[in-house]
Automatic annotation (TrEMBL):
<dbReference type="InterPro" id="IPR018300">
    <property type="entry name" value="Aminotrans_IV_CS"/>
</dbReference>
<feature type="modified residue" description="N6-(pyridoxal phosphate)lysine">
    <location>
        <position position="197"/>
    </location>
</feature>
<keyword id="KW-0032">Aminotransferase</keyword>
<comment type="pathway">
    <text>Amino-acid biosynthesis; L-isoleucine biosynthesis; L-isoleucine from 2-oxobutanoate: step 4/4.</text>
</comment>
<dbReference type="InterPro" id="IPR001544">
    <property type="entry name" value="Aminotrans_IV"/>
</dbReference>
<dbReference type="InterPro" id="IPR005786">
    <property type="entry name" value="B_amino_transII"/>
</dbReference>
<dbReference type="GO" id="GO:0009097">
    <property type="term" value="P:isoleucine biosynthetic process"/>
</dbReference>
<keyword id="KW-0808">Transferase</keyword>
<dbReference type="InterPro" id="IPR043131">
    <property type="entry name" value="BCAT-like_N"/>
</dbReference>
<comment type="pathway">
    <text>Amino-acid biosynthesis; L-leucine biosynthesis; L-leucine from 3-methyl-2-oxobutanoate: step 4/4.</text>
</comment>
<comment type="similarity">
    <text>Belongs to the class-IV pyridoxal-phosphate-dependent aminotransferase family.</text>
</comment>
<dbReference type="GO" id="GO:0009098">
    <property type="term" value="P:L-leucine biosynthetic process"/>
</dbReference>
<keyword id="KW-0100">Branched-chain amino acid biosynthesis</keyword>
<dbReference type="InterPro" id="IPR033939">
    <property type="entry name" value="BCAT_family"/>
</dbReference>
<dbReference type="GO" id="GO:0004084">
    <property type="term" value="F:branched-chain-amino-acid transaminase activity"/>
</dbReference>
<feature type="region of interest" description="Disordered">
    <location>
        <begin position="1"/>
        <end position="21"/>
    </location>
</feature>
<keyword id="KW-0028">Amino-acid biosynthesis</keyword>
Length: 357
């Protein structure tokens, strides 16, 4: 028996599909999931598509104690003709391996795993919603499963893919959000795990997010962990500014997550003749530009929202209102183009989409 042939166990009872526009993010899952095991000395084995179900794990499984885990997030989109498209999925598996390397997790074979994902989506095609702004959110992840309390890398892992239909991120168009510039808590520091999609980076941000919400903000803008001076990210998105005609974004420095949306925006703007200046950007510099009336647009970027315009930044009691709380022209154009490519409405001249047949 070969252990590397994909086994498919079909679910005998199919769940009801939720109404397309009222699905709270990440609460409903498709009928099947993908699983694969790893053992030191043996490698990855037993790839399977099985009915979606809870796991049984030893309470001493390392994931519960030391957080050795990584994840990814991507989406499948439905076109008007009913085709199903993925957006640059190979970049997600490439990044998963980068995250794994940082967390001492063994790499997966990116191409083979993309084939397994394709098989899973083929089986769950009916779950890809079609209403404007909806998609099927895909969550690949790896957990450490060895039952052992020693502080050392696990010798066994489980790789899984689960999928969840999601409604439109913005109901009623893009709405600029109010953001608190965080100067107490830190998301990540250079040399830490900020560039990896790993669990602890997110739970360590909750306290700052709760404080920001209490003050009437939707989320936080993270500054660098050493000087609390340089801009890193907004919530779990990358951030861009348009200042006096120039587009700038923080340069990747080891603590910033390397967003695929960020990369795509830089590449797309390049084809429009707009060069993005990737550099260190201080919050003082942003405040000065604001006072000089030079800040034209601010927006976050990520798979969930694609573009999330920022309408207001609050920093140490100072309020910066951006573009009169309205969405900027460039933000709107980027949103329309990228979501257009993802859903087949705009021709994909970049070669970014992969069709699942
Ligand atoms: C996932 C993520 C992003 C955005 O990455 P995309 O690939 O564009 O979805 C940005 N920042 C953080 C912290 C993230 O986890």
């Amino acid at each position: 028996m070969t252990t590397n042939e994909l086994e498919i166990v079909q679910s005998t009872s199919k769940k009801d599909k939720p109404s397309q526009d009222q699905v709270p993010f990440g609460t409903i899952f498709t009928d099947h999931m993908f699983t694969m095991e790893y053992e030191a000395g043996k490698g990855w084995f037993e790839p399977k598509i099985v009915p979606y179900a809870p796991l049984t794990l030893d309470p001493a499984a390392m994931i519960f104690h030391y957080g050795q885990t990584v994840f990814e997030g991507l989406k499948a989109y439905r076109t008007e003709e009913g085709r199903v498209l993925l957006f640059r999925p190979e970049k997600n598996f490439e990044r998963l391996n980068l995250s794994s390397e940082r967390l001492s997790i063994p790499p997966i074979d990116e191409n083979v795993v993309l084939e397994y994902l394709t098989k899973l989506i083929e089986l769950e095609k009916d779950w890809v919603p079609s209403t404007a702004g909806t998609s099927l959110y895909i969550r690949p992840f790896i957990i450490s499963t060895e039952a052992n309390l020693a502080v050392a890398p696990s010798k066994t892992y489980k790789f899984m893919i689960i999928m969840s239909p999601v409604g439109s991120y913005f109901t009623g168009g893009l709405k600029p959000v109010t953001i608190h510039v965080e100067d107490q808590f830190t998301r990540a520091v250079k040399g830490g795990t900020g560039m990896a999609k790993t669990a602890g980076n997110y739970s360590s941000g909750y306290q700052a997010q709760a404080n920001a919400k209490k003050l009437g903000n939707a989320d936080v803008l993270w500054l660098d962990g050493v000087e609390k001076k340089y801009i890193e990210e907004v919530g779990s998105m990358n951030i861009f500014f348009k200042i006096n005609g120039e587009v700038v974004t923080p340069a990747l420095n080891g603590s910033i997550l390397k967003g695929i949306t960020r990369m795509s925006i830089i590449e797309l703007l390049g084809t429009w003749g707009i060069e993005v200046n990737e550099k260190k950007i201080s919050i003082d510099e942003i405040y000065q530009a604001f006072q000089d009336g030079l800040i034209e647009e601010v927006f976050g970027t990520g798979t969930a929202a694609v573009i999330s315009p920022v309408g207001e930044l609050n920093w140490q009691g100072k309020k910066m209102i951006i573009n009169n709380h309205e969405i900027g022209e460039l933000s709107q154009k980027l949103y329309d183009t990228i979501t257009g490519i993802q859903t087949g409405k705009v021709e994909d001249t970049m070669g970014w989409t992969v069709e699942v047949k």
